[in-house]
Amino acid sequence: MAGPYFDPEYENLNIRINPPRVSVDNSSCNDCTLVKVDSMNKPGILLEVVQILTDLDLIITKAYISSDGGWFMDVFHVTDQNGKKVIDFRTTEYIEKALGPKGQAADWMKSWPGKRVGLHSVGNHTAVELIGRDRPGLLSEIFAVLADLHFNISGAEVWTHNTRIACVLYVNDDTTYRAVDDPSRLCLMEEQLKNILGGTQDDEQVACHSFSMGFTHIDRRLHQMMLADRDYEGSDTLNEVEYPSSLKPKIFVERCEEKGYSVVTVNCKDRPKLMFDIVCTLTDMHYVVFHATISSDSPYASQEYFIRHMDGCTLDKEEEKGRVIKCLEAAIHRRVSEGLSLELCAKDRVGLLSEVTRILREHGLSVTRAGVSTVGEKAKNVFYVRDSSGNHVDMKTIEALRKEIGRTMMLNVKKAPVSAQAPHETKGWAKTSFFFGSLLEKFLS
Length: 445
Description:
Helix content: 25-40%
CATH superfamily of the largest domain: ACT domain
Strand content: 25-35%
Number of domains: 3
């Protein structure tokens, strides 16, 4: 006997009856733009909204989140990177379309390939994921191997934390500039990259590598890789340099007895994408945010999240609370780079990254984070660096780099060491959304 018939569109009926309402308001506040989102509630919707706003390089200065029951209501106070209102018509139109009834966040993000990871999501590129134990010169060796195997790197994002390294590389054939689907070439690349990551058989986490097939936002994917690699365990040797005791994140987990929530409070130094990193981590740890309040009083941020686990439970065990605190601390640290930021612009060519990272290594510099993008024939590479001991880079070394690298490309030092900054210069951070951020105008045109 046949079972009952269910219309496949029934699941989306509520959304069609009550489509999302999005407004971009530039009149209510003098110093910021208000983005208001009213929508049917669904798993992961908060992360989708925050993801789109941060991918547009917008700074979230305040936010009020409420998603109890079946409805999701958010108000975000945002500015551009210069602290001004968002008045560009194409940007405001994109926000309304991406979050509105005709767009839906997930569908619109697929049209922005630079922010996604996946074999099929980036056209003529193959996305390669690597994670392993970090060491001086490792990134240089990875780029050199790919160049020797005739792979061109058109984009990359690299994070390091707690002696671990995670990176997503977009590669293609250096002659045809098309994705490589030859199994023998891919196997050879995998084998050689595994040898580079190296390690002992006793270290199960030493060499994990894969060819991504899904549709995952690249920053979220890096968080997932680091979280799965348990980078939150142990102690980061650079923490004392990057985080003096007065600036270390202060994270508390308490219980709201009246409403049956766990309350996660985060107080730390503010920076771009801070809210995304925290919401991303909570989501990937299977916690649901029901209410939240976010505020920024530069240079500090205060964020409060009312959460439950997906199964409806709160964080009652001390061990569980401790794990949430450690994971959020790691999520905050991963994107922090207080060392020098070197921005290099040059005409793109095969082996460029291998050459640049070789020069950095020869000058005793270690890369703590990197972003690589290519637009047409122009390559833009950003490297956050320290010396091999984890200390701030001597300016004599920077001058030597200028002399050597400056012959073939432009070198711009974006950030000075913390010890050299005056107190008022710590307000606001150098722009960190370098990965494919410059492609926005291209994709919106």
